[in-house]
Amino acid sequence: MNVLVYSGAGTTPESVKHCLETLRLLLSPFYAVFSVESSAVLNQPWINKSSVFVVPGGADLPICRVLNGQGNDTITKFVRKGGIYLGFCSGGYYASSRCEFEVGDLNMEVSGPRELGFFPGTARGCVYKGFTYGSETGVQVPKLNINKAAFEEEVDDSVFNYYNGGGMFVNAKSFQNVEVLATYDGQIQVHDEGEETDLSKAAIVMCKVGNGKALLTEN
């Protein structure tokens, strides 16, 4: 079976490269891991030959421009039939019902509904200040606290992750079919809403979608 890493509009070469190298290291020789452009997502019969569809980091608006409609319908069908969607950073924003990125900043703001909606709420960022497109100047290595109860095997209490422009999944604990796998440790600059404020700070979530799953991380 195949693991497809989306490499079309909206991704960065570095994010695609790291996804390909890491997934090949972890999954070879049991899975074939390779990159696909938007044309393949739209026109090739990949659903029945694939186990995982991966969207690396970058920017989600260019992905919307090429995959909205037919592309997202195909991805949704794939997941609902039992496939796995794996979204990193902008891939997490893209797979939420709403994206809110730097709201109020006239030069940076990206906000609006998204078609996939695997996470049924809002992905909101940036969690930390300093992000600049095409730059590593805003990179941080935040501590994430692990929800150990979500794992069958023993895992560490926390990890440190690369971060550059990611968000949080707002009020993630309030949704059915959503399990929070990791939360930000310490203070962040965006928040949950209502009575849930600052309770979850969800950085990584697993969402059940039909017979499949969507693993979304903002790191």
Automatic annotation (TrEMBL):
GO terms for molecular function: biotin--[biotin carboxyl-carrier protein] ligase activity. GO terms for cellular component: cytoplasm. InterPro entries: Biotin-prot_ligase_N, Class_I_gatase-like, UCP016642. It comes from the Eukaryota. Residues 1-217 form the Biotin-protein ligase N-terminal domain. PANTHER family: BIOTIN PROTEIN LIGASE, BIOTIN--PROTEIN LIGASE. This is Unnamed protein product. It comes from Candida boidinii (Yeast). The lineage of its organism: Eukaryota, Fungi, Dikarya, Ascomycota, Saccharomycotina.
